[in-house]
Each structure stands twice: as C-alpha cells, then as structure tokens.
Amino acid sequence: MISRRRFIAGLALAAVAVSTPVLALTGGGNNFDGEPLPDFQDMTKGQPEQQPMYIEGMLNLKSCHTGERYRFPYRNTNGVYDSQILMALNWFLRCNHDGKCVVMDVRIIEMLNYVAKFFPGNPEITINSAYRTPAYNALIALHNENVAKNSLHMRGQAIDFSVQGVPIRQVCQVAQTVRNIFGHGGCGYYPRESFVHLDCGARAATWMR
Asked: Among candidates 114, 74, 112, 79, which has minimal Cα distance to 91?
C-alpha cells in the first residue's frame, strides 16, 4: 500500500503543468458488438496520429466523491513512466468506501489517456469509480443489479468516468473506438447515471444499461 508521505510527494509532481496536443473528432458509421448504442459513430478516422505509447501520458482528473483535482504527467512520449506519479495516481483511484488502493493495471490507465487525447485540450476527466475492495463491491452489488460480483474494479482493471463538457453519448463512442484500437476490454454505457465504464479485461464486450 502507498504511504501518505509518498503519495503527497507524488501529488507535488502531479501538479506540474505540461502542454498537450489538440486533436479533433471525425467519424463514420459502425455498430456495437453487443446491444447497439443509438447513433454510434466509429471515431477511428479522428484518432491521434501517434500510437498510444507515443502520446504523452497526461491525465487531468477529478474525483466526483472528494472533489480532488490533479494533473498526472505519468509517462513521457518516449514511453518512460514516472514511478512517483504512478503511485500518486494509484492513490487517487483508490476505493471510494475505505480509501484502500492497489497498483492499477497500466493498460486501463493508457486506455483512459487515449480517450482523453481524442478531445481538444486534454479535458478533465471525472472519476466515478476505479478500484473497489471486494468487500465494497459485494456491498454495492446487494443494492445494484448492474454491479458484477466478479467486477474488474476489484482487480484495478476498470474505471467509470465522464469527460467535462462532453455529452456522455460521445464519450462512449470514443471509448468504444479506443477499446477497438487496443483490441481488448469492455465498454459500458450508462446514460441514466451519466458515465462510461471502460476496462482492460481479456473479453471484448459492449453493453448499455
């Protein structure tokens, strides 16, 4: 588990301002491989020119539960990770219930980063849920049938989020495209709760609830 001292040191580095590329959205038609999302557009034609690992690893994040807001420059364009920033990022993505954290799967971090780079100005992403302890996941599963008992959130492989200033439908369209680019993972569309689920699991799946 990450100590509070190391976390604070990481947050100090996370506050460093770094410029990000401006990227535009374009797209054509496509369908989900599960239940179709109305008016889904494949954004592949508008994807960043660089491959995921060669785009700057920079996430602007806000917690919808605590209001915390930080910028995390966790990897440079040469593919070199900053271990202190990653530790701070892991802590930021901690369980909402008891504050415990794990080392998040870097694949979901990279998928989220690639989603952000589809939008101009690398906008702020609001995190609804990231890591969940098994106890917390079991607790919310009792009251919410949409919560999987074997959720990838418990493995640090899933994130529920929205993007500031972007309709949730469009966020889902981009997340689905990113899932297809990476070639793995699940993408869930939750319009009533206004968030998108993205995970890096081995099974490719798409759903709407």
From this structure: 74
